[in-house]
Design a protein that fits this description.
heterodimer, A: mainly beta, six-stranded mixed beta sheet, four-stranded antiparallel beta sheet, 0% helix, B: mainly beta
Chain lengths: 114, 117
């Protein structure tokens, strides 16, 4: 079946550090890939997405590139801020069975210290 | 603001109470979802509706009863819950279940934090 694996958390960094959160997936067909972010006390917000191989999604300084050859969609940011502290979820949406369904990774908690 | 609202934001209930969670989306979508987010588990899909018809029940106990009267509203009726049902309940919507490409994004509400005593 389809699945998403994220790097284990929690991740703690200092402000202005470089961030990478790894995400790999297993899927039949050609899924769309997403990163969602959940700030404390809130629901999930779409951070960025990519719908086909080699697409790069970007938003708020975050980037992720859809790599079909390595089945990966790693999240990166060049210089993190305290306000980036949140839980980040990688997900895929696969239509190979007809109806689309989102499959989420387990989430990675990120804490940025001043 | 994602265009999906949920009420109440917080709910405390006893095991014998009956309560309902409400979700409303203002995005013109036709698919709606209920998810459960517990402290130590991955996000769990509970129910899916497409054009008001339930298309998925992910082995959810019958003490949770969904209702979708129209494409904009989704309810989750709760009765005789257990303490282990305490969690954040998230509602989401998307264009519909069969749109692909740019239209398959799900938009989430802020959630209802449920505590069962």
């Amino acid at each position: 079946g389809n699945s998403v694996t994220q790097m284990e958390g929690p991740v703690t960094l200092s402000e202005e550090a470089f961030l990478t959160i790894n995400c790999t997936y297993t899927a039949t067909g050609y899924p769309s890939l997403f990163w969602y972010v959940q700030y404390p006390g809130e629901g999930l917000q779409l951070l960025l997405k990519a719908t086909k191989a080699d697409d790069k999604g970007s938003n708020k300084g975050f980037e992720a590139t859809y790599r079909k050859e390595t089945t990966s969609f790693h999240l990166e940011k060049g210089s993190v801020q305290v306000s980036d502290s949140a839980v980040y979820f990688c997900a895929l949406s696969d239509h190979s069975q007809g109806a689309q369904k989102l499959v989420f990774g387990q989430g990675t908690r990120l804490t940025i210290n001043p | 603001e994602t265009g999906v609202t949920q009420t109440p934001r917080h709910l405390v209930m006893g095991m014998t109470n009956k309560k309902s969670l409400k979700c409303e989306q203002h995005l013109g979508h036709n698919a709606m979802y209920w998810y459960k987010q517990s402290a130590k588990k991955p996000l769990e899909l509970m129910f899916v509706y497409n054009f008001k018809e339930q298309t998925e029940n992910n082995s959810v106990p019958s003490r949770f009863s969904p209702e979708c009267p129209n494409s904009s509203h989704l309810f989750l009726h709760l009765h005789t819950l257990q303490p282990e049902d305490s969690a954040l309940y998230l509602c989401a919507s998307s264009q519909d279940l069969f749109s692909g490409g740019p239209q398959d994004t799900q938009y989430f509400g802020p959630g209802t934090r449920l505590t069962v005593l």
